[in-house]
Each structure stands twice: as C-alpha cells, then as structure tokens.
Amino acid sequence: MDHSHAMPKIINQPIRAWENGDLVQGFALLTKKEVRQDRNGKSYMDLELADASGSIVAKVWADSPAMASQFEAHQFIKFRGSVKSYRDQLQLSIDACRVANEQDRGDGFNESLLVPSTKEDIDDLWARLSRLLEEKVGRPILRRLARETLALHGPALREHPAAKSMHHAYRGGLLEHVVSMAELADKVCDHYHDVDRDLVLVGVLFHDLGKLYELGAMPANDYTLVGRLVGHVVIGRDLLRDRCRAIEGFPEDLQLLLEHMVLSHQGKKEFASPVEPMTSEALVLHFIDDLDSKLNQLRASREAAVLTNGISYSKGFGRYVYVPALPENGPENGTAFCPDPDPHAEEAEEAEATSADPGGLALQPRLFQGS
User: Fold this and answer.
1) Are residues 167 and 94 part of one domain?
2) Which of 75, 218, 281, 351 is buried most, with the most CB atoms less than 10 Å from its CB?
C-alpha cells in the first residue's frame, strides 16, 4: 500500500521550528505522562515532549495506535504526529510513539539534542556570577561564604534546572536565574542605598540552592523524596547553616538575616514560605525573584503563542497576556514553551479533553518497528 501521502513533512526538526498544521516525526525527551479520561470515559494520554529548543504539550487520543505502546516519563522517545493550535498554544497529536533505541542513531537520535538547555553560555554565566560576588560583596566573611559555597555546589549549580516545569525549567536554568537575579539585585542596591548589598547578593546565591536536592538533574528533572517531604526552602536554609558552620566564628546576626531571606523568598505563606519578608533585603530578594521568573514565563509564552497579534492566554497568570514577537534581530533569551507559568506551585488543573482528532496518519512499520 502506498503511504506516501501520509509521510511527515518535517523530520528531526526542533520543536521550536514547528508550526500549526505541520506533520512531524523525530525524537524527544518525554517529560510528562498522565493517563486521563475524556468526557465519554475513554482513556487518553496527556504528555509533554521536550528537546534542546523547548517543549510542547502532546496528546495520545483513545483511537491512536500509540495508546498500546509502552513508554514512560523521562525516557527518550521516537514519535510521529500532527501539530495543532489549541487555546492559542501549539499542541501535538501523536499517532505513533515508542522508546528510542540504539538502532535509531542512524536516523538522527542524539540525546544531547533533546535536553532543554539555557541559550546562554554556561561558562560565561559562571564567570559573571563569580566576578560579581568577588567584586561587589564587601564583607570578607560573606565573600568567603559565597566563594566556598560556589566551590562546593558549583558543578551542580552549572547544570541544574530551576524548576520541574515552571520558570527556567531546563539545563543551566538555575544558574541563569541566579545570575540574572544577582545582576538585577546589584542595580537595585545602586538605587536604594540603605539596602545591604552584601546580604542581597549572598541571599540570591542561597535562595534556590535547595533545588539542587529538591529536583533531580536533567533529563529526569523530577522531585526527589526529600524534595517532596521537605522542599527547597527549608533545604536551602539547612545548606546555608552548613556553610556558615564551616566558617569558624561566623557572625550569628548575619546568619539569622540570611536565614530569614531564604525562608521568606517565596513571599507568602500560601506559596510555601515559612515566614514572610520582614526586612528590606528580604523584600528585594522576593521581588526580583518574582520578576525574573515571570519575565522568563512571558518569554516562553511569546515563543509558544500561535496568534499573530501577540495575545496568548496564560494559565499561571490567569489572564491573557500580550507578548508580541521579537524583531528578527532583537534580543533572544529564555526557552520555549513552559507549560506551567506559575512560579510558586506546580499546576494542579485538570486538562479539558477535546474530541479525538488523530489526523489519519498511517503507521510506518519501517520507521516505528516495535512501536
């Protein structure tokens, strides 16, 4: 039988290059898999696929042959499907899917192309952070605290995501977030002269350090047991105590102020802050954290939006946002589609099922052998 009419138009192209109506085939990292029920009681799969360029929501509808395939979250997969627009966002309807294998390397399977990563140079980010902490932290004891913390946790900090599926949820995302915050904090302290720059900069370094233990590294990027049971805020406070304890005679008053900043940086108790900001430095830390995460999410919305007028609905913000496309030669940073734009809590919203629309693509036995 001739299946030429069903051949995908796009093979092994990055997710960011996809457009509404494309038929696509390639490899991806499966970052989320949930089995749900549609309005008629039929099971379907709610997925998220990612590569180095970004990520996209995907569905396997009840009548898709892929429903019978065996694949799990955090595995590399081979897929085929059609790209559609749903609620102003691109979404992939999958017709075939299986776990990628060694034989697929001849067809373009390469893990390094499938792990979402910061678009910034990690060595440059690291140099900027190290230089800022050395040159702008005035107290020798706090400079030593920052230096020893970077020496101990630096390798993990360079690689780690800042969240599972929220802001900066990609390789190097935590470092990108910390550097952006530190550079903004330095400028804020230039403006507000009564704010203690040393405390703010060291607070930025420690505020999300607990995520090194709350989340697994890429590509898994999922919550650890201690992450679920304790959380990054308290873990970060404990890491701060450990580093202060390693420095003989570390001032108790400085440690207390830094602990308060780590414990209050989420801003409100309903956002998992044990306490709320009570000092100028804690307020500055909270607001620059919130600002940096939200702007990262808007960049993600810009890259995921289908509407040409720049209007896109953000579930995290709970409203439509205006994110016009950047000019071709304009600045470009952040990562592609971030499915959960709330900086404080993972999405708990139940997805609304739509009617199945598999696109009518026939399976190709040669390409999806064993699917």
Assistant:
1) no
2) 281
